[in-house]
Amino acid sequence: MAYPSYPFPPGTLLYPPASAVLQYLNDYATHFDLRKHIRVKTTVQNIDWDASLFQWRVRTTPTSSASEAFAKESFYDLVVVANGHYRIPFYPLTPGLRAWLESGKAVHAAWYRHAEYHGDTVLVVGRGPSGVDVADEMREVCKTLVHSFPEATREDREDGTLKLRGRIAEFLDPHEGRVRFEDGTEETGIDYSILATGYEHSLPFLPPHLLELALPPPIPPIPEKLYNSKFHIFPLAKQIFPLVTSFPLSRLAFLALPYRIIPFIFAEIQTRAALRAFTDPSSLDPAREAVDIVSRYEELRAQFGDNELAIARAWHKMEAEQFPYLDTLLQFVAGEHGNPAWKLPDWVLEIWHRKDTLRAQWKEL
User: pLDDT digit string (tens) for 188-228?
Assistant: First the structure.
């Protein structure tokens, strides 16, 4: 889990608590003397490419005041966007959900901190890492947990205290706690629902002429501008660099957009790839990168057909794909920014495939 350049201290738990991770990040900043480069309590209001200066024009304000009177404009050769994508909750457009949210019967997992009693029967929606964690923890404080996710086969486990259900078709009367699933069955008496339904990409500091908030058109050809579908940023060479015509390929980098990854390792290797491209722009071949983007699109289209939204949602999903991706990225980095020792050993991939078993055994310990 740690950055390749700075391991966790000996004795760190296999699944460290948030406090340990926070301490690790503080220690990382101290070790590399990073604080002098960090400007806190500052909001980036706008980032735009100035073609006449061949630089990025960046406008910031103090977080406490967005007033233009306090705005500051700076110029940079390279911009790295690493603002994360777990801040703006995504709410599915499931009929009836709004009434549950407004009545206080449902909340997004973004506001979940720890298991609390919210009634005997709790519904958890989603089975990403957050959904799994929330479901596991909430089972300790409720009598019946209903876990809904698209891949689920209807099943009752452990004397009916755990109910696996498929995708929800409609949230019905919140006072009755009733929902209907896509298979036509219903559950009633649900006291509370936690939505582990993911997040949206939000980049409000990039103006519309650089980043359009919309689904990109089908490819080929690859569009000349950058799109934010809320589920993916497109088109990006190596899932990092915007392959567009309005500014050079190596001057803007997006880090850690993919999900279902090992984030610290992933982010550091991508950062070094960004440095390689910035110091040697010729290392990026736009034609080759365009072929790779089209190839990925065709692979996803074979899975999802003409469903552009489904393709967008899957575009940054990695899972086991992250390991060959990182190997390829390390080969690209090479030189002064690389380190052959950072190649992930084969056992990491094996553990990734068995992570649910590992987690269950860790909980028993």
Answer: 999 999 999 999 999 999 999 999 999 999 999 999 999 99
Same structural domain, 232 and 345: yes
| Separation of alpha carbons 311 and 215, rounded Å | 10
Angle between helices 322-333 and 346-353 (to 10 degrees): 150
Exposed/middle/buried for residue 223 (C-beta within 10 Å: 0-12, 13-18, 19+): middle
**pTM of the model as a whole:** 0.87
Q: Which residues, at least 6 apart from 17, have a Cβ–Cβ distance to it below 8 Å?
A: none
Nearest 5°: the CA angle 180, 186, 189 is 105
Cβ atoms < 10 Å from Cβ of 362: 11
CATH of the domain at 113: 3.50.50.60
Answer yes or no: do 188 and 64 share one domain: no
In this prediction, what percent of the chain has a pLDDT beyond 90? Answer: 82
Whether 13 is covered by a domain: the verdict is: no
Check whether residue 188 and residue 245 sit in a common domain: no
Residue 22 contacts residue 43 (beta carbons within 8 Å): no
Residues 231 and 332 in one domain: yes
| 186 in the same domain as 291 | no
> How many CB atoms lie under 10 A from the CB of residue 37?
8
